[in-house]
Each structure stands twice: as structure tokens, then as C-alpha cells.
Amino acid sequence: LVPIRSFPLLLLCAFAAPLAAQGRPTFTNPPDLPPTRGYSQVVDIPPGSRLIVLSGQVPLDSTGQLVGGTDFRAQAVQVFENLRRGLNSRGAGFTDVVKFTFYILDANKNLGTLREVRDRYINAAAPPASTLVQVSGLFRPDVLLEVEVMAVVPR
Fold this sequence. Notes:
Distance between the termini: 31 Å
Mean pLDDT: 87
Radius of gyration: 19 Å
Number of strands: 6
């Protein structure tokens, strides 16, 4: 028989062991792949994790109004704030993001700004995997970028 005073410790061990075994995603850049700047080439997701997928977010506020006008930086900040809110609604945050897909107009002009804004939100030491697509237009002519994410959290 287990003494009553040890019971809470047994419960803690019983629940902590499966959580520790699940772990967190691992972000890597294998040396056989091209060097990267601000993203990981490979993300290994542990079994038993929960996947959260956010639709593409654009620089609209909660009332549907465009934020930032023609200012790419202001639009990017609004997009990342929308992503943060979407992630938070499912108990996740930017540390849980494993993949970004960016759709932007004029990558040559705006990529540096996008990276600056993104780096304020992510862990730059273990950045998510990433795809960037330059597009000729989005669903509205005043929208300069759209970003979707995939996040992984333990069950």
C-alpha cells in the first residue's frame, strides 16, 4: 500500500511522464540543404501532438477595416496580431508555430520589413519552417500580404 501523503506525487508522475515523452517539435537545418535566413528547413513533430491550422490572415481588424493603408509594415503588424489572436484562441502562441506560408506583393521591396516584423513574434533561434510566395494580387487591391500558419501543441 502507498501512504496517503505519497499519493499526490504518484499522480504528478503518472501525468507528467506522458507529457514529457511527447516533447516539442524539433527545428533543424540539415547541412546537406541550402543555408537559410530566418527559417528552418525541417520541423519534426512528435507523435501525439495536436495540429492547429490558421487560415490566411490579412491586415483587417475585428470590424473588417483595413489597418495600415499602403504601409507594408503596419499591415504586417496587424497580420501578426491577427495570427496571435487566432493562436491564442486555441491555447497556442508563436512558440508553437511550426510553419508559415507568406503571400506578399513585391517581395524585393518588402521582404526585409516582413522579416523584421516576423522576428518580433517568433523565436529566431528556432524559427518555423517557411514558404514565401510573391503574388501579383490578393483578394483586395489594398491588401499587401496574407499569412497562414500551422502550430503544434501537446495533447
